[in-house]
Amino acid sequence: MEDEDVCIVGIYPDGTVYINDYHAHEPSIPHLDVEEGGTEDWLLVDVSETETATTATFYRKLVTADPLNDQPILPGVARLVWSYGEADPTDFDNIILQRETTGVVEVVLVEP
Description:
By secondary structure, the protein is mainly beta. The protein has one domain (about 5-110). It has no helices and seven strands. The protein is globular.
């Protein structure tokens, strides 16, 4: 991941929900926006979990007040990178390395 805005959402076994805003400046492990002088811009609307899936609804502004770490969401095709694993992460410093399944999908988030 290079120059990517990253949102990580989940539910721990005790029911605690987490949502964090990250940024990757180069192909490497992303860093928390707030640790780099940025802001937490993703807002969680809903999250649920079954034995086989976690589903989350979340959003952020198209253009945030964090120009250092957030890319604007522009009209047209956007590339979304997704990832999931069998268990909740135990080490957020190595979160991307813990995901077993990843992929990329191109979607239109804002009509041109």
